[in-house]
Amino acid sequence: MAKVSTNGARRIVIVCGLGASSAFVAHRVRHAAGEAGLAVVVAPCALTDLEDRVADADVVLVATHLAAHLDEIRDAAARHGATVAMLPESTMHGGDGHEVLPLIAAADSHQEHRHSQESSQ
């Protein structure tokens, strides 16, 4: 399945158990990214919907309470070329979203490195 075009914006899926807390986190991350001048599309996602949503993601950010599912989430993301990172605990408990921006930057660096390795093979 082809990824949906977002005119160069990073496509970020924030996954939590039922999708409720990820909706709040997604709002804060959108706001922080906007303040930082980053082009992002951020979507909340319940764990049960991840397989359908990850196909359009560049980055999957995982709520801390899903640590036991991290391997499963990484496998789903890898099938679609997305990078996975665990959200900081502070994000899930009222952070302003700025603490997530380094994770997005690190995921971008990881993807660029991976793509350059694939191109050289």
- Dominant shape: globular
CATH architecture call: 3-Layer(aba) Sandwich
Strand order of the largest sheet: 2-1-3-4
Summed up, the domain count is: 1
Level of helix content?
40-55%
Q: Give the radius of gyration.
A: 14 Å
How far apart the termini lie comes to: 23 Å
Question: Can you tell me the CATH superfamily?
Answer: Response regulator
Oligomer: single chain
Kindly state the mean pLDDT as a whole number?
A: 84
Total strands: 4
CATH fold annotation: Rossmann fold
The string of secondary-structure elements, in order, is EHEHEHEHH
Helical segment tally?
5
Beta-sheet strand percentage? 15-25%
CATH class: Alpha Beta
Stretches where pLDDT is under 50 for at least 5 consecutive residues are 1-5, 112-119
State the major sheet: 4 strands, parallel
Structural class comes to alpha/beta
What does this structure look like?
The chain is α/β, with parallel strands linked by helices and 121 residues long. The chain is built from 5 helices and 4 strands; from the N terminus they run βαβαβαβαα. It has helices at residues 20-36, 50-53, 70-78, 89-92, 101-120, and strands spanning 10-16, 40-46, 59-62, 83-86. It has a 4-stranded parallel beta sheet with strand order 2-1-3-4, with helices on both faces. Strand 1, helix 1 (20-36) and strand 2 form a beta-alpha-beta unit. It starts with 9 loop residues before the first strand and ends with a helix. The model is unreliable at 1-5 and 112-119 (pLDDT under 50). Keywords: Kinase, Phosphoprotein, Phosphotransferase system, Sugar transport, Transferase, Transport. Pfam families: PTS_IIB. GO terms for molecular function: kinase activity; protein-N(PI)-phosphohistidine-sugar phosphotransferase activity.
